[in-house]
């Protein structure tokens, strides 16, 4: 048992991941394909696209799915139940903004989780799967070089 | 294999423990320094804004790990729950070599003379255990100086007229001002205040054979990539190890202080990195685990002579848990205030630490460290939607155009804000965990409400087009500035350790962390912990020479 999960872990890092780990269907780690579709639509309402990319284009869903298979595993059940309701609401009306408002009112714990996680995915470090191409940092005008600090100071200048 | 007896075991390689280990080792004593965490390097958090000491959404990257170290938190309504290090009520203060000093913002404040005699200055306060320290500022002054020079502090506090007397200037000049600093400084002067450069445990010029700060955004909460931030992990601990009479053992979880028939400590029982029980015999034990873990360890050390825990004869261990109430004012501007030059915080005033009408104390006020985009997401003016197009527009428009001013309000200690042992929950080593309960004194909140008006005034005067404030409520304090749980005092009935930080009932156990603070100043406590650790070490060495 221990060996196979280790093997699974090793394989995750390679293109063989999907084939290696038995039960996985599709490219997602924690969510099912239709849950992903619903969540993606929901997140794109929270952070819509305009002249800058929104949640969908920056991989917020990738961030959330990865964390739901990792540190946020404990939230998976809340997500499952919340997304089922969201899907039903989306099917009832084409007005997705209205659905978000209704969720914020009726399903506050679920909505707050999704909101917090979407913001982390969008504004956080790209290494976790979101903020593709540093889109949000570019939007805010933050330099995206990760490697170095900003050696802008002049040692001769007296700070006092 | 049994270990040989050493002169001292020091528990916890943070601010206090690092200093004590070094001071005892260079005095020729044999020392074992135990740390439950590990060495960390900048590569462990890699400038990860979602996983660091300040923002631990995805885990507490400076330790302890989420799986093995639970605590129990009881809220003001009496509801209890198990919390993990990455949850905010946990009051996590890092578990690694260097402790909090590996990832802190590195403000290097001396407390003011008044901060050591709060009761004499203001009188007793209903519902609070407010008291004076058994030592005065003057007792600590030489050791503040030693900490500033050995660990390394930059800044310029000369323009601060409220500071307690000091013999020497800081060893390093301040970093050049950021744009926020340049905006706020003339405004403060215009208001009749006295702005100055924050003292920081950070190299502004080459010092201690390491280079200066490179002014990046990832400072508070992160390990420094160029090793310009000074903590015990890159100063006193390497010095201690170089003497060869100090051995550092990481990944070691202390279970209890081992005791003899007479109640004196005989060493320490701990679990090593492989989970095996070990006993390290020692002539003395110095506990530096931070206010919560130190109290927990004393409570877990039971003996026929002290069945409720070491030093706990009068039920004072774990009491008076305090930290700082941080009120904050935010201002939005119609011009850029952000220049991408770290560490961000740079300018402060001490005009409102004392002398506030009808209030007992106050806080230093300073501009905030750089807020990374993820921190700014929740920095919203009243009425601003939390999501959607309006939120995105706000982020885009104001991320580079805002300044926050905040300060650590000195809290009024409460007897019932406390650390206990949880009767049921145990950690991965089957040791009872800390149970945190209680509240903050209403007067601390009152002070915060007053001080924040000054912060807001500063921003308005600087030309902010909109300002708002956030003031913490009555929920239990603690956090990284946790202090007070094993109070220092002359009367054994109302304190845990004496003025030399020796446990009243046990003459070979000392404490040297913020747990001994009677009150916690209106400042970040790191330099005071370092200075007091130097002072305690000197006492220990003196005692030993005498004996």
Compile the SSE list and pairings.
The complex is a heterodimer of chains A (160) and B (547).
Chain A (H helix, E strand, L loop, with lengths): L1 H11 L4 H4 L12 H14 L13 H9 L7 H17 L3 H11 L1 H16 L11 H6 L20
Helix pairs in contact in A: 3-5, 4-7, 6-7
Chain B lengths: L5 E6 L3 H12 L4 E4 L7 H4 L25 E4 L5 E4 L34 H5 L14 H16 L1 E3 L22 H12 L5 E5 L35 H7 L3 E4 L3 E7 L5 E7 L5 E11 L3 H10 L23 E2 L2 E5 L14 E3 L15 E3 L5 H4 L11 H11 L3 E5 L2 E2 L7 E9 L5 E6 L4 H20 L4 E5 L38 E3 L14 H21 L1
Parallel strand pairs in B: 1-2, 1-10, 2-7, 3-18, 10-20
Antiparallel strand pairs in B: 3-4, 5-6, 6-13, 8-9, 9-10, 11-16, 12-15, 12-19, 13-14, 14-15, 17-18
Explained architecture:
- The complex is a heterodimer of chains A (160) and B (547).
- Chain A has 160 residues and is mainly α.
- Chain A has a domain at 31-48 and 55-130.
- Chain A is 55% helix and 0% strand.
- Chain A is built from eight helices and no strands.
- Chain A has helices spanning 2-12, 17-20, 33-46, 60-68, 76-92, 96-106, 108-123, 135-140.
- In chain A, helix 3 (33-46) packs across helix 5 and helix 4 packs across helix 7.
- The radius of gyration of chain A is 19 Å and the shape is globular.
- The termini of chain A are far apart.
- The radius of gyration of chain B is 22 Å and the shape is globular.
- Chain B is built from eleven helices and 20 strands.
- By secondary structure, chain B is an alpha+beta fold.
- Chain B has one domain: FAD/NAD(P)-binding domain (3-Layer(bba) Sandwich), CATH 3.50.50.60.
- Chain B has helices at residues 15-26, 42-45, 118-122, 137-152, 179-190, 236-242, 291-300, 373-376, 388-398, 442-461, 526-546; strands spanning 6-11, 31-34, 71-74, 80-83, 154-156, 196-200, 246-249, 253-259, 265-271, 277-287, 324-325, 328-332, 347-349, 365-367, 402-406, 409-410, 418-426, 432-437, 466-470, 509-511.
- In chain B, the strands form four sheets. In chain B, strands 1, 2, 7, 8, 9, 10 and 20 form a seven-stranded mixed beta sheet that branches.
- In chain B, strand 1, helix 1 and strand 2 form a beta-alpha-beta unit.
């Amino acid at each position: 048992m221990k060996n196979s999960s280790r093997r699974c872990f090793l394989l995750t890092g390679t293109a063989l991941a999907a084939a290696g780990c038995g039960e996985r269907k599709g490219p997602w780690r924690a969510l099912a394909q239709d849950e992903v579709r619903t969540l993606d639509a929901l997140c794109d309402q929270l952070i819509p696209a305009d002249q800058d990319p929104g949640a969908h284009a920056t991989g917020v869903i990738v961030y959330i799915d990865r964390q739901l298979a990792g540190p946020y595993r404990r939230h998976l059940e809340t997500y499952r139940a919340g997304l089922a309701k969201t899907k039903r609401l989306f099917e009832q009306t084409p007005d997705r903004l209205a659905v978000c408002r209704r969720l914020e009112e009726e399903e506050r714990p679920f909505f707050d989780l999704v909101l917090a996680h979407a913001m982390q995915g969008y504004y956080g470090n790209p290494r976790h799967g979101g903020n593709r191409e540093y889109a949000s940092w570019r939007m805010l005008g933050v330099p995206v070089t990760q490697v170095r600090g900003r050696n802008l100071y002049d040692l001769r200048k007296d700070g006092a | 294999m049994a270990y040989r007896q050493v002169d001292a075991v020091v528990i916890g390689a943070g601010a206090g423990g690092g200093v004590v280990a070094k001071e005892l080792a260079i005095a020729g004593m044999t020392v074992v320094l135990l740390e439950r965490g590990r060495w960390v390097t900048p590569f462990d958090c890699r400038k990860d804004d979602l996983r660091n000491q300040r923002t631990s959404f995805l885990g507490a990257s400076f330790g302890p790990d989420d799986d093995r170290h639970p605590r129990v938190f009881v809220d003001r309504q009496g509801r209890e729950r198990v919390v993990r290090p990455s949850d905010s009520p946990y009051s996590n203060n890092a578990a690694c070599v260097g402790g909090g000093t590996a990832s802190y913002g590195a403000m290097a404040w001396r407390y003011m003379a008044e901060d050591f005699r709060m009761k004499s200055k203001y009188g007793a306060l209903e519902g609070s255990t407010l008291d004076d320290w058994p030592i005065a500022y003057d007792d600590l002054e030489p050791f503040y100086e030693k900490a500033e020079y050995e660990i390394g502090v930059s800044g310029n506090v000369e323009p601060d007229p409220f500071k307690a007397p000091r013999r020497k200037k800081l060893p390093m000049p301040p970093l050049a001002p950021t744009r926020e600093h340049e905006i706020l400084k003339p405004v403060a002067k215009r208001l009749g205040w006295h702005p100055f450069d924050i003292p920081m445990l950070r190299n502004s010029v080459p010092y201690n054979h390491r280079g200066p700060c490179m002014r990046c955004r990832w400072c508070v909460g992160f390990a420094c990539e160029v090793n310009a931030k000074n903590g015990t992990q890159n100063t006193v601990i390497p010095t201690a190890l170089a003497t060869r009479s100090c051995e550092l053992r990481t990944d070691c979880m202390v279970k209890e202080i081992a005791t003899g028939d007479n109640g004196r400590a005989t060493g320490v029982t701990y679990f090593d990195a492989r989970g095996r029980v070990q006993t390290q015999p020692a002539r003395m034990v110095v506990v530096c685990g931070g206010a919560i873990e130190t109290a927990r360890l004393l409570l877990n050390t039971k003996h026929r002579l002290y069945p409720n825990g070491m030093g706990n004869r009068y039920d004072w261990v774990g009491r008076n848990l305090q930290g700082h109430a941080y009120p904050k004012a935010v201002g939005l501007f119609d011009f850029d205030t952000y220049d991408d030059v770290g560490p961000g915080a740079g300018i402060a005033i001490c005009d409102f630490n004392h002398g506030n009408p009808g209030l007992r104390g106050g806080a230093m006020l300073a501009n905030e460290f750089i807020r990374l985009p993820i921190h700014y997401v929740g920095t919203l003016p009243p009425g601003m939607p939390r999501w959607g197009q309006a939120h995105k527009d706000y982020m885009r428009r104001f991320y580079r155009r805002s300044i926050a001013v905040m300060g650590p309000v000195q809290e009024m200690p409460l007897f019932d804000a406390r650390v206990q042992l949880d009767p049921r929950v145990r950690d991965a080593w089957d040791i009872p965990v800390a149970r945190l309960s209680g509240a903050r004194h209403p007067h601390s909140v009152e002070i915060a409400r007053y001080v924040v008006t000054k912060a807001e005034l500063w921003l308005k005067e600087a030309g902010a087009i909109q300002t708002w404030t956030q003031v913490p409520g009555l929920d239990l304090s603690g956090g990284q500035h946790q202090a007070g749980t094993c109070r220092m005092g002359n009367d054994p009935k109302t304190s845990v350790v004496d003025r030399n930080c020796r446990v009243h009932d046990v003459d070979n156990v000392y404490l040297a962390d913020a747990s001994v603070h009677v009150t916690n100043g209106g400042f970040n406590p790191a330099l005071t912990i370092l200075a007091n650790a130097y002072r305690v070490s000197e006492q220990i060495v003196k005692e030993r020479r005498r004996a």
